[in-house]
Amino acid sequence: MQFCKMNGAGNDFIILNNIVEHLPHDIFPSIARVLCHRHLSIGADGMMVVEAPQNGGDYRMLFYNSDGSTGEMCGNGARCICRYGYEFGLAGETQRVESPSGLVTGQRIDGRNYRIRLTDPTVIDLEHPVDVDGIIYPCSYIELGTPGLPHAVVPIDDLIHKSNDELRHLGAAIRSHPSFPKGANVNFYQITGPDQVQELTYERGVEDFTYACGTGTGSMVLTLMLKGLVSGQDVQVTVPGGLLRITIDHDCETIRNIYLTGPTNLVCVGEIRDEDLSI
Known about the structure:
This protein is α+β, with helices and mostly antiparallel strands and 279 residues long. It has helices at residues 18-21, 28-35, 75-87, 164-175, 214-226, and strands at residues 2-8, 11-17, 46-51, 59-65, 70-71, 94-99, 102-108, 113-117, 121-125, 130-132, 135-137, 140-144, 149-155, 185-193, 196-203, 208-210, 235-239, 242-251, 254-263, 265-271. The protein has an 18-stranded mixed β-sheet that branches. The radius of gyration is 18 Å and the shape is globular.
């Protein structure tokens, strides 16, 4: 079985082309759990599967978290898979990628940088405070696409110098907070300058911090724009894996487009020979 390993700002993925492999869908969760294990196999935050299109796109992407759970969409994954589609001849420089939460359009900027249009917000709740250990944390809640990919957006003073252990405990608690029936990716942020933000994301399905979360970054910038804290135009977001940029087109209260731009890295291609994998 052939694979490709890529990352987008450190958010890393294993990509399988099921147009070639013809694997049954019911084994993808177990494949993801095995292959994404960092010490026993290739290692990744998630696994993406390329499928034939169903609704007029160039191809379809399925996304699985490292614990085998399905994901509605992944922004950095979509940027990576757009590069994969271009590099491996599935589409041209402009792409239409079908995802479980809706159509994602992608654009090649240059050899390594790609821009995608994230799926539209379907839930916007700017005031959604949560209680953790008796402390009320200000929080906003955003869902992108249908079904919605859930994100909690939480300001943290002096985020850069906060203890990771402290934030990990808080991230896990908010991720599973009862006010979020589907759980939520938790995006901690601190504004560091005009249209400049520091971000750290605790992701459901990974159950830990990741180096970047594209949909989380889009949701966070959308929240800050609606609160009047950033312009929404080329907002620079520093994440552990690098720099992501968000631009939002809007007309009064209507959000037209959320664009995510950032780097990709095609790490390796090869053959999976993992002896713990049962297919």
